[in-house]
Amino acid sequence: MGTNEQKQAGGWRSNKWIRAAIPALLLHCSIGTVYCWSVFSEEIAKYIGHEKSSVEWAFSFAIFFLGMSAAFLGNVVEKDIHRSSLIATICFAAGMALTGYFIYYGGEHQGSKLALIGIYVSYGFIMGIGLGTGYLSPVKTLMLWFQDRKGLATGLAVAGFGAAKAIASPIMQKMLYSDVKNQVQREGGIYRMFWILAAVYFVMMFVGHLLLKKPDGWHEPQGKDAKPSIMQVLKTKPIGNYIGIWVMFYINITCGLALISQEKMIVKCIGLAAAAGTISSVSAIFNAGGRLGFSAWADTMKDRNTIYKLIFILSIAFTGLVMLTQGIKNGEDNTLLVILVLALIFVVNAGYGGGFSNVPTLLSDHYGMGSISAIHGITLSAWAFAGLTGNQIATYIVNHSGEWIDHDGTMVNPVGYQNVLYFTIIMYIIALILCFVLVRPTDKALEAKAAKKAAK
Fold first, then answer.
1. Residue whose C-alpha is closest to residue 36's, from 120, 97, 111, 96
2. 3-state secondary structure of 180
């Protein structure tokens, strides 16, 4: 090979966009489609002859096993990103294909418990493992390649996870329905969609797996004594510091899921049922924009924890305004209240996304890069528990308060949705207090403060 050819080969092999950013987007844009669940959950329930509430647990299990697989497999990601990204590719695609099979089986055997359990195992457990390892695999690699703008880098990848819903939802709609407007289902469209997407996402993720690579100058320490244990790393700061980060991360996800899970019905309450699909896409864009915008903004700050303070203050402010004005209950005939409710939905979506993209960089600022994948993985267990609580708490509040009324042929509970805000505002206030009381300033922030004091 000639000198020029060697330079060209070396160029793409050491290009941070080709070896980190693009593979991260391929992985995250694939696994992020887990959030498209609401597009087809009702169709699955009808097709296999089960209640929608029973089928919904598949999504909760997927989020739970995402967090738990990230927690338990964080060390695998730390040691070998190629092994972890391959595990992610196989598990995610296999889980999706098997989900399609059990939907097909359920259609042939209406009301089958085996079909329901198969969907739980496939979409929940197998896909969940793919989600957790796929989510973690590119994050440390991105931070290593983009040392100076690691918030921007991780935000870009995690934004792909958030944007996946906006990209994939209309595609899924066309695959599901022969007439999207009137929601006329294609014959066998629901299970065929899963099989086609399993193949497409396998190719995308496998290409990402092949491209993903840590910088040549970075070598993971080898041997049992090469790295301190995770507990030793966490104890380099007061343990309350990590507990504060974990709990505020959990609260942000729980509150986000509580509101997002009721988003479609809230939109109907304020008289925008016809625009529900558009609003869902816009909220997904805010979700992705929050992941990229908040994390890039945090790169300019001395202490990344400031971003969480801003997220919680904004969420408290807009939640409080909708509570005081009873915007969900009274919004249908009041344009100002409609705008206020939509602003709340978009702000919560942006803050929900921003919370995800900032946690790995916040952890790296506090605990260094050495064991960041493992520590980030353990922290994602907060996502697992939030996945089991956020939706369910909101559903419980809606089902046990307020009054169901007929709204253009759809049963809604405006007071119940309004009452969910009482829960979320209390949780946001607790999270904000934790930001100030438990989460300590980073060394960088303390050094900047000391330098400013010395300059005076």
1. 96
2. coil
Asked if residue 4 has pLDDT above 60, the reply is: no
CATH topology classification for 16-214: Growth Hormone; Chain: A; (1.20.1250)
- Cβ distance 204 to 30 under 8 Å? yes
The C-alpha atoms of residue 153 and residue 135 are separated, in whole angstroms, by 14
pLDDT at 174 (0 to 100): 86
Q: Are 298 and 434 in contact (CB under 8 A)?
A: no
Q: What are 177-198's pLDDT values in tens digits?
A: 876 666 667 777 899 999 999 9
Handedness of CA 304, 309, 312, 318 (dihedral sign): negative
Give me the DSSP letters along 197-265: HHHHHHHHHHHHHHH----TT-----STTSS--HHHHHTTS-HHHHHHHHHHHHHHHHHHHHHHTTHHH
* Nearest one of 357, 375, 354, 242 to 309, comparing CA atoms: 354
Amino acid code (one letter) for 237: K
Cα–Cα separations (whole angstroms), residue 176 to 45, 151, 318: 14, 37, 36
In whole angstroms, what is the distance from residue 224 CA to residue 201 CA? 36
Contact 280, 264 (CB under 8 A): yes
Give the pLDDT of residue 10: 52
Measured N-to-C along each axis, helices 22-31 and 189-211 cross at an angle, to the nearest 10 degrees, of 160
CATH architecture of 230-449: Up-down Bundle (1.20)
Tokens of 142: 């991105």
Angle at which helices 335-367 and 239-260 cross, to 10°? 150
> How far is Cα 236 from Cα 246, in angstroms, rounded to an integer?
16
pLDDT over threshold 70, residue 308: yes
Rounded Cα distance, 438 and 362, in Å: 14
- Please spell the DSSP secondary structure of 344-369, one letter per residue: HHHHHHHHHHHHHHHHHHHHHHHH-S
The model's pLDDT over 367-415, given as tens digits with 9 standing for 90+, comes to: 988 788 889 999 999 999 998 888 889 989 999 998 888 877 778 899 9
Residue 261, pLDDT > 50, answer yes
- For residue 3, the model assigns a pLDDT of 46
SS3 293: helix
pLDDT band at 218 (very low <50, low <70, confident <90, very high): low
Reported pTM: 0.84
By residue count, the chain amounts to 456
CATH fold match for the domains 16-214 and 230-449: yes
- What is the gyration radius of the CA atoms in the chain, in angstroms? 22
